[in-house]
Every structure is written in C-alpha cells, then in structure tokens.
Amino acid sequence: MAENNNLPPGIMKYSDHEVIVVPNRLTKALKVASVEQPDPVVAAEEALEELSGQFESWMGDECERLDEARQRVQAEGFTEGARQNLFRAAHDIKGHAATFGFPIAGDVAESLCRLIEQAPDLSAVPLNFIDQCVDAVRAIIRERDLVDAERTATTLAHELQVLADKLIEPNQATDGEGAPPLAP
C-alpha cells in the first residue's frame, strides 16, 4: 500500500492550551551511528594526513600556474583575460595554502588578490610588485624547511601587504607624514 505523505497534524490538548504536533517524516531517514563506524571528523583528519605528502607537489603546481599567469600579464598587460587568470591563480593559492601547510604563502596571495580587486587603476600597478608577490609565494613554498624561514616569510608577507595597501589607496599617508590629526 502507498504511504500517505500528507498526514494531518495532531493536536495535543491541555487544560489551558492546545499544541499542534506536526508529523516528523524525517525520522525514517535518520541513521543511528553504530560503534563500528568511525567518527567522520577523525576519518577526514586521517584522510588529510594520508594526502599531506602530496601537498608540496600540489602547491608547486599552483605556483607554476601563478607564474604562467604573471608571464601572461607581462606579455599582454592587464587585459581582462590576463587579469582574471592572475586573480584565479592567486585566489586558488590563497584558498589552499593554509590547508596544505603554507599559510604565509596564502597571506601573500591574499594581498595580490586584494590588489587585483581593489586597485583604482590596475594598469598603474608596477609589474615588479606582481613579480615580488609571485616570487615571494614561490620562495615561501620552496624554502619552508630552512632555518628562520617562517620569520622571514612573515616579514616579507607583511611588507607586501603594506605595499598592496599603498597601491590600493595611493593617497594614504606613510608613517603619519601629512596625516590628519587624530584629535581636533
């Protein structure tokens, strides 16, 4: 016999009020986890650990895409296709870097993405800044195991972020010079 999916709601009556009880059709879809089934979070972490040996190779591939995008910008200028290509490559690194163990490379890629999105005139952005960002991402990934690499990478990422901010807002004062007073 066909199941009736349109069961009417029930009504529970109390001395001073009534409660409408809607049938819960989802209880049939509920699956109770047994003891033998692993915790999905633990299983995901284990799968991530198994893949971690490939992260550096994957980031290397992402760096190659970023470098190719940079070369296209150098050859064509900031055409719509070249700009989108560079943005996608930087955005992918920004998204993957922390998961793959390269969070500082993600910070540099984020500065490049922000610049591409927010610069008032992208054609006025010096190509050497794009080169610095791409080379920084590549160096951070390549040199991650060296002594003091993280400290150097953090400093580099911060400096590139400051430069990106200045390129996005060219009228921004540097080190308080010419800045309006904080108090009247």
Short précis:
56% of the residues lie in helices and 4% in strands. With 184 residues, it is mainly alpha-helical. The protein has a two-stranded antiparallel sheet with strand order 1-2.
Total number of helical segments? 6
Mean pLDDT: 82
Helix and strand run: EEHHHHHH
Regions with little confidence, pLDDT below 50 for 5+ residues: 172-184
- What is the SS-derived class? mainly alpha
Strand content: under 5%
Instruction: Characterize the biggest β-sheet.
Output: 2 strands, antiparallel
Classify the helix fraction into a percent range: 55-70%
CATH topology of the domain at 54-168: Four Helix Bundle (Hemerythrin (Met), subunit A)
Q: Radius of gyration over alpha carbons? A: 27 Å
Widest sheet: strand ordering: 1-2
Q: How far apart, in Å, are the first and last alpha carbons?
A: 81 Å
Under the CATH scheme, the architecture of the domain at 54-168 is: Up-down Bundle
CATH class of the domain at 54-168: Mainly Alpha
Shape: elongated
The number of distinct β-strands equals 2
